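Dear colleague,

Thank you for sharing your sequence with our group. We've completed the structure prediction you requested, and as agreed, I am returning the results in plain text so they can be pasted directly into your records. Please verify that the sequence below matches your submission; if there's any discrepancy, let me know and we will rerun it promptly.
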Amino acid sequence: MFALALRTACAYTHPVILSTRDVSGEITSGCGTFIVINRDGYILTAAHVLRPYNLAKDHEKERGAYEEEVRRIRSDHKMNAKQKARAIKQLPYNPKWICNSSFWWSRDGVSVKTFAIDQQADLAVGKLEPYDEKWNAQYPTFRNPSNPPEPGDFLCRLGFPLHKIKPIFHEDTNAFELPPETFPIPFFPKEGMYTREAQIVDLKTSRIVKFIEMSTPGLRGQSGGPILDSQGRICAMQSQTGFHPMGFSPKVIRGNREVEEHQFLGTGLGTHVDEIVRLFKTVGISYDLST
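Please find the predicted structure tokens below.
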């Protein structure tokens, strides 16, 4: 049903790898998905994919404040060595402060300098620099919001889950390296039925943002990827998973104890194409819209 649609989508859907290193030396990584929108190199991804970058900036400020206070204490001539050590020990210190971070946008030497972000809709738009339009054989068509899918239609999300990535950090160059076994990073499609339109309300502004709900949850690594109809048109962007209590809790045996196990139904939420198009218009980005 989705073979042709996925063949087209694979041309403009790519993985982004996020690597971080904290002050304790621990290295972590994750994978998300992004869509190349047009021949100018503009991309679309989920705003929450950028959280490590934003967190790193917050941590940089916190570490700077800590280091400045350490310098102040060490230069205080009214304190002896023991008093200084005690004062420094009492300062707030987080071994999980991020000190190095990197985004790999599916190609070496490419970066995104700035993003236009809609946090409530979980959308982020930026531009790959440098960019060559020949890097993508095809570009997406977004489904016209005036002709949305209907409950019962089957849709398919595309992304890059179920893949382990273990980057290496080189302190001499202050850079991450993705080892050869990282590649290739395989696509993974996951279909589901469109169940209903979901709405999220900002209580401060009363703004209502539309999402589409699917009968299956997305997988970690598919965030930022396209949700397609059978014709290959993008109907939404994979955003998050919703969990709905099913109203019963069967008793199960765990070890020597009997416990109640609460049951939940996982559904997928994708940012509605209406919200995507709205952001494109706000930023002034060209895109292809179906009739």
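Summary note from our side: The mean pLDDT is 92.

Kind regards,
the structure core
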